[in-house]
Design a protein that fits this description.
Elements (H helix, E strand, L loop, with lengths): L1 E7 L5 E6 L9 E11 L1 H7 L11 E2 L3 E9 L11 E4 L2 E2 L19 E2 L11 E5 L3 E3 L6 H5 L4 H12 L7 E4 L5 H12 L3 E6 L2 H9 L4 E4 L5 H8 L5 E6 L3 H7 L3 E9 L12 H6 L3 E4 L5 H13 L6 E6 L3 H9 L6 E5 L1
Parallel strand pairs: 11-12, 11-14, 12-13, 14-15, 15-16, 17-18
Antiparallel strand pairs: 1-2, 1-4, 3-5, 3-9, 3-18, 5-6, 6-10, 7-8
């Protein structure tokens, strides 16, 4: 089969479009014919060796997979050849104390598809059968691959790690990103007033099209002041943050009393210094959010199927042009999501 594999780390790394052996399923695994695979910031981190994990090369990246079951391990009974599926990217054991209560995102033995094992930038991929989620008939492979990782991350942030109440003010950082574009739509569906940020006219317009009530320029050094102006000095109830560094610290300037920053990323920096006085005086909360549980993927696909949210699809690339997709994301020139199709 054909695969697009990372062979040397870097920014950019060295990739090769090559022939490799078709995967064979172990007893509890299935082989998926990949129909679409989303590209994410996680793939760039893997490309440049920016993840705090050991990664063997060559590696087929890509964790946001949709496709069809084409082969079954001998112990797999719940799936059949031809089933249309999405694949959960965080590989969980299913037996630890967190998995048994449905918290697979913090599995004690968790791995990442496309990092610890080969992912979906290939014609086929082999995965544990318990990672599969049924794809609704009216959801295309491409739309699924634009939402089941980043979109379910946003779903986890806004429905599990925090809870949006009707009438809340929600600030979504980077509304044109994968997580941000989904978070805007989810927060609006939950009844929130949404403010978002964007670094260009195109990104701000995109966030507005997705439903943001107000969009501010993140290049303005006083963008937290704009948030407070919009909310009449009150501040927002929830901030959806996925950048880290200085951006994370500025988010606290935007918070109302009893407000919460929920964060899932650290692209701009992992180490921050917090002023504890306003943090506890205003009873602020900082909540970490990692990945998603399977229930979050199911909810995301259900909402997509019902028309409550839409896939923020920027462009689809054939597998042999995946390098161009990486370049586009690396250059921060994407509105929503990029998807690769074998």
């Amino acid at each position: 089969m054909k695969a697009f594999q990372l062979v040397t780390h870097g920014a950019p790394g060295k990739f090769e479009f090559r022939d490799i052996a078709d995967p064979k399923p172990a007893a509890n695994e299935v082989v998926i014919r990949v129909r679409a695979c989303g590209l994410n910031r996680l793939d760039l981190w893997a490309e440049e060796a920016g993840l705090p994990v050991t990664m063997e090369l060559p590696r087929t990246l890509g964790g946001e997979i949709s496709g069809e079951v084409i082969a079954l391990g001998e112990k797999v009974k719940e799936w059949h050849k031809g089933d249309r599926v999405a694949v959960q990217s965080n590989v969980f054991c299913g037996t630890c104390e967190f998995c048994v209560c449905g918290e697979e995102s913090i599995c004690l033995n968790g791995k990442l598809l496309g990092v610890h094992r080969d992912g979906g930038f290939a014609e086929q991929v082999v995965v544990p059968a318990h990672l599969l989620v049924c794809l609704p008939e009216n959801v295309s492979f491409e739309n699924s691959a634009a939402l089941t990782l980043a979109g379910s991350t946003a779903m986890h942030m806004l429905t599990k790690r925090t809870q949006v109440e009707m009438g809340d003010w929600v600030l979504v950082i980077g509304g044109a990103s994968g997580v941000g574009s989904a978070a805007i739509q989810i927060a609006k569906q939950l009844g929130a007033y949404v403010i978002s940020t964007g670094s260009s006219d195109a990104k701000r317009d995109f966030a507005k099209q997705l439903g943001a009530d107000c969009v501010i320029d993140s290049n303005d050094s006083d963008w937290p002041g704009e948030v407070r102006k919009i909310t009449e000095k009150r501040g927002v109830d929830i901030v959806v943050e996925h950048v880290g560094g200085e951006v994370l610290m500025k988010c606290f300037e935007c918070l109302a009393r009893n407000g919460t920053v929920v964060t899932c990323g650290a692209t701009a920096g992992r180490n921050v210094q917090i002023n504890l006085w306003p943090f506890f005086v205003k009873q602020h909360s900082l909540v970490g959010s990692y990945g998603r549980n399977q229930a979050d993927i199911v909810n995301t696909l259900d909402w997509l199927s019902e028309g409550r949210i839409k896939a923020p699809l920027h462009q689809v690339f054939p597998l042999d042009q995946a390098a161009e997709a990486f370049k586009l994301l690396r250059n921060r020139a994407v509105l929503g999501k990029l998807v690769v199709t074998p």
